[in-house]
Fold this sequence. Notes:
Elements: E1 9-15, E2 20-29, H1 32-49, H2 54-78
Antiparallel strand pairs: 1-2
Amino acid sequence: xxxxxxxxxxxxxxxxxxxxxILPEEYPVSGCEDVNALLQAGxxxxxxxRSVNPADIANFLENLCRQYRGAAAASLxxxxxxxxxxxxxxxxxxx
Length: 95
């Protein structure tokens, strides 16, 4: 898939109760053409992965997970996570 495809539309990340932007940027929303290209690329990648040794895939995923855990831990130390969340006030079916 080519980068730089035209977005279908944009959205911004806002705290709805406070009507305040969480992040200053606007983010693109992909159109059907982009989504179909991504699905085709995923199908081709899945077919290509069939020829890769499963142990190599497992090692890659384990290393990636370790890196993400380290990045997440560092990010949580910078800013408390719950301050950026809005509580779900939808009534529960269980009470």
